[in-house]
Write a structure and sequence with these properties.
alpha+beta; Aminopeptidase; 2 domains; 13-stranded mixed β-sheet
Length: about 290
């Protein structure tokens, strides 16, 4: 077995395992592969770089080569890479119902490789699009005197730099900013809200099943009007695709729970269902 980094030069060999994730490559992603004795691709893994954490996005082995040690070898070598490059943890996060988590194939594999399974405080809230847009007086407007909405790729460079600075230094708000995603055309439904040239709210919103999912969010409850205006434009884009029926919002921590309450619960918008967040993690210094 041989461990290798996947690049544009050898990506075609691993396409069956890594697929569209490599085509969506970003600066915060890493791709590794395992090659068998015949110099053929046996499996691949995709990771996202976090703060001292390497997050597992996907790991897979060719069907005919499964249960032959390729997956555990790939994961073991990836952990060694993480250790050598200063990462403290290798982790995976996912959502399941309480009933299904024990039968999750990835959980079983990671547990066998020494990862610890932990329940996280994050829950996945699911709202019906029709419940969000049917109000006679829009709860989420698309017109406002003070606010201007930009799609991420249209945002002027000065405001992009300011938004990145604010997301790092935000006090009392909730912020996670993946600039490569937010400012790309992959961010099909989200964007940025400005007031007097200052970014107040932003979101990346991506297709997810028969709906859409908030992938990241920047803002604060002090600017709840900007967040409602942002959501109004998100919903306006979603309505162009009638088959999109649901909006998924991952909620964890006091600030995001307060946001979810302010945006949805106070307006008596029902939550259709929830799923529980879980994480599997292993320290890079562990045997």
């Amino acid at each position: 077995m041989k461990f290798t980094m996947i690049t544009e030069k050898n990506a075609r060999c691993f396409e069956a395992a890594i697929g569209e994730l490599f085509r969506e490559q970003r600066r915060d992603r890493l791709f590794f592969g395992v090659i068998d004795e015949a110099e053929e691709a046996a499996g691949a893994a995709a990771f996202t770089i976090g703060n001292s954490v390497l997050w597992i996005d996907r790991i897979g082995v060719e069907d005919k080569k499964r249960r032959k040690g390729y997956g555990s070898f790939l994961l073991r070598e990836s952990i060694q890479f993480a250790r050598q490059n200063g990462f403290e943890w290798v982790c995976a996060s996912f959502y399941e119902t309480e009933e299904n988590v024990s039968s999750n194939e990835l959980v079983s594999f990671l547990s066998a490789c020494g990862f610890r399974l932990e329940r996280t405080p994050i829950e996945r809230k699911v709202y019906r699009i029709e419940d969000l847009v049917k109000k006679e007086e829009p709860l989420f407007p698309t017109e406002a005197k003070d606010y201007v909405f930009y799609r991420g790729w249209d945002l002027p460079e000065e405001q992009k730099e300011e938004l990145i600075r604010l997301s790092v230094n935000e006090k009392g708000g909730f912020s996670y900013l993946d600039e490569d995603l937010l400012f790309s055309e992959e961010n099909r439904y989200g964007g940025v809200v400005l007031k007097d040239g200052v970014p107040l709210a932003s979101a990346a919103v991506l297709p997810f099943g028969n709906g859409v999912r908030f992938d990241q969010l920047f803002g604060s409850l002090e600017n709840i009007g900007a967040l409602r205006f942002l959501l109004g434009h998100v919903l306006q884009e979603i309505k162009k695709e009638p088959y999109r029926k649901e909006l998924y919002l991952d909620v964890g921590g006091e600030k995001l729970i307060a946001l979810q309450t302010e945006l949805f619960q106070r307006a008596a918008i029902a939550c259709k269902s929830t799923m529980q967040g879980f994480a599997a993690r292993k320290g890079t210094g562990e045997a």
